Amino acid sequence: MSAPTDRLIELIASAAINVDAWQDVLDDVAGILPGAKIMMHAEDADARGNVGLIHSGFSAEAIRRYIEYYSALNPWTKSWLAIPTMTPQISDNVLPAAAFAGSEYHDDFLLKYDDIRHAAGIKIFHEADRVAMVSIHYGEPLAEKYNSAAWALLRDLGPHLRMALEVSRQLSRSPAAAAAAMSDAINAMPAPACLVTQQGKLVLANDRFIAECRTRKYIVADAANRIRPADYRLHGKFDALIRNATEPRPLAETQAATSFTMSLSAGQAGAKSMLTVVGIRASSQIALPWTGGRPSHALLIIDHAAQSEERQASLVADFALTQAEYQLAKLIGDGQSLRDAADCLNISYETARSRLKIVFGKTGVHRQAGLVALMAGRNRNTRAP
């Protein structure tokens, strides 16, 4: 199974303000998917620090030759640009490399540079003034495993990538526009999100975050509009995260973001969410009107992906899955191949195949990709390729 680590999520959050952190993001993705090569292309006319084209795993010579010559021959370009934003895709489903086998691009580039005939990609933005895309490339020996694993990883990282690029854009604008832009960015975030002061006092919040506070399940607001975890045992850790994220730094470091994560518990039920805390410090370039030029605020984002027990109860109830069937469905949904899932469950491949057929019958899907889509929809309301 390939899943984003806490460190990777923190690096993406840091990249919202420190463009240099994007290289660390790609290197971490390469570490999660050994043998894969990662490429990110992000251009934004309004951003102070453009990402441009960065990569991990490719040689400098391969990138130079691609930019100078092979990019113009790439038959994938048109297909990748046509896919919907925030919907990860697999190249074998968009345009298989076999369809242009024998071409100069296929034989002299894809095969020459360590066999990268397969890929998974996600388009974050595609607008008149900005475009951003991340692609993960791998060869034939890894295709069966990584077609699902890389897709699942991009699915999980997509909202974090979009958030970081959007926050970076908003902070690049003038101080007067930044306040409204930050509010718009927080309201547009698909996850519950808010901006708090160093003391944890709420400044901005989207409707999803306000709804979380009203349930008093994970996050609550007191009479002074101060945000804290519902579990009082987490107050000390939460306060420390806010303090560490917003503590003063030397002037040379004021444009750097610091991010931390912690688990939020819903109590005895066992459901959990992950809270990401991103420090936003004032500087002459990104000072917001409410900061007064001081180390400023923290952006809080709640990720409900950790609520596995609630998802399990929903799937078991809706489709009458047994515990064994759910465990198999979950592994497939997380990007495991059927053989790897069988190994994880300590069952034979044939037993896994038989169990998967039962899962297909109960859920009404007919392929593993459909099961991945079903699990992804339950987790994050996304679609499979």
Summarize the structure.
The protein contains 15 helices and twelve strands. The protein is of the alpha+beta class and 385 residues long.
Question: What distinguishing features does this structure have?
Answer:
single chain, 385 residues, alpha+beta, Beta-Lactamase, Arc Repressor Mutant, subunit A, 3 domains, five-stranded antiparallel sheet, 15 helices, 45% helix, 19% strand, disordered C terminus
Helix tally equals 15
Shape: globular
Strand order of the largest sheet: 2-1-5-4-3
Domain count: the total is 3
Helix fraction, binned, reads 40-55%
CATH topology of the largest domain: Beta-Lactamase
Element order, helices and strands? HHEEHHEHHEEHHEEHEEHEEEHHHHH
Low-confidence stretches: 250-257, 282-295, 379-385
Task: Describe this structure as you would to a colleague.
The structure is a single chain. With 385 residues, this protein is an alpha+beta fold. The protein folds into 3 domains: 6-170, 2-Layer Sandwich (Beta-Lactamase), CATH 3.30.450.80; 175-305, PAS domain (Beta-Lactamase, 2-Layer Sandwich), CATH 3.30.450.20; 309-380, Winged helix-like DNA-binding domain superfamily/Winged helix DNA-binding domain (Arc Repressor Mutant, subunit A), CATH 1.10.10. Helices cover 45% and strands 19% of the residues. It has 15 helices and 12 strands. The strands form 3 sheets. It has a 5-stranded antiparallel β-sheet. A hairpin with a 2-residue loop joins β4 and β5 (130-138). α12 packs across α14. The chain is globular, with a radius of gyration of 22 Å. Mean pLDDT is 77; it is low at 250-257, 282-295 and 379-385.
